[in-house]
Amino acid sequence: MDTSYFLPLFGFLIGFLIVSIGGGGGAFYVGILTALYNVSPAVAASVSLATMIPSTIIGGYSHYRAGNVHVKLAMTMLIFGAAGTVVSSFFAHSFPITYYQIAFAIFMIHMGIKTTKSYMRRRSNFQLALKDVNSRSAIYVAGGYGIAAGLISGLLGASGGGALTTGLIVMGCEAFAVAGTSVVAIMGIVVTGVIVHSSLGNVDWRLAGLLAAGSVPGSLLGPMLLRRIEQKKFEAIIIPFVIVTSFLMGGAILYRVIIK
């Protein structure tokens, strides 16, 4: 039985997730393709990035129209993220993949710790944090997290959305702005990543098309539902989700490396 026709369903769910929370879906794409369809990691990574292009374009535009995008932060993360993707792609095959996995796992756990600390501070000082979002120091921080996302994309084939959402939370962005701003930044990173992977011949456009057939409707539905949710209720969901995901992904990768 050809199970590839379940891919649009997976694409719908992950596309909805990416646009709704601002990232984290790329790892699910790679996991599904490698675990369920025996696709090589290199091809799975490139398909993941290609699938996210239409959903991030649609989701980014929807978030922008809804006023959920900090344009300056998004453009900073996009530019530095794209640059990080290009630079890191040249070194992707220079070291054993285990090194990258360990570094990524440590980085994810570190982000989980930082997000937890930031969340605890925000609960009593939320408005003060918001005032710092457009400062020069915030732009520098955004560039740093953009580079981190680009390195993750170039070396591991993920979108780097986890780094972007963590950075925006740490900087004090409100929950809807975390989702909207990171989706716009991810768009530039994944486009750059696909160009690099296409030059290497790693993209399976059939698989990408099947996933995108579901991710596009999912990306349209996400912003529509967000408009019906209160800001504080959504924040109570997205920040704990980012924290838990960071620790789980970091721990899972370390566990896989250790048991090998």
What descriptors fit this protein?
260 residues, mainly alpha, 10 helices, 82% helix
Would you write up a description of this structure?
- By secondary structure, the protein is mainly alpha-helical.
- The chain has one domain (3-259).
- It is built from ten helices and no strands.
- The protein has helices at 7-21, 25-36, 41-65, 71-89, 97-131, 136-156, 161-170, 175-199, 205-226, 231-259.
- Helix 4 (71-89) runs parallel beside helix 8 and helix 5 packs parallel to helix 7.
- The radius of gyration is 17 Å and the shape is globular.
- Mean pLDDT is 80; it is low at 124-131.
Write the layout of secondary structure elements.
Blueprint: H1 7-21, H2 25-36, H3 41-65, H4 71-89, H5 97-131, H6 136-156, H7 161-170, H8 175-199, H9 205-226, H10 231-259
Helix pairs in contact: 1-2, 1-3, 1-8, 1-9, 2-3, 3-8, 3-9, 4-6, 4-8, 5-7, 5-10, 6-7, 6-8, 7-8, 7-10
**Distance between termini?**
32 Å
| Structural class estimated from helices and strands | mainly alpha
Strand content: under 5%
Gyration radius from CA atoms, angstroms:
17 Å
What form results from the Cα inertia axes?
Answer: globular
What's the tally of helices?
10
Largest sheet: none
Number of strands: 0
Averaging pLDDT over every residue, what do you get? 80
Number of domains: 1
Helix content: over 70%
**What order do the SSEs take from the amino end to the carboxyl end, as H and E?**
HHHHHHHHHH
Which blocks of ≥5 consecutive residues have pLDDT under 50? 124-131
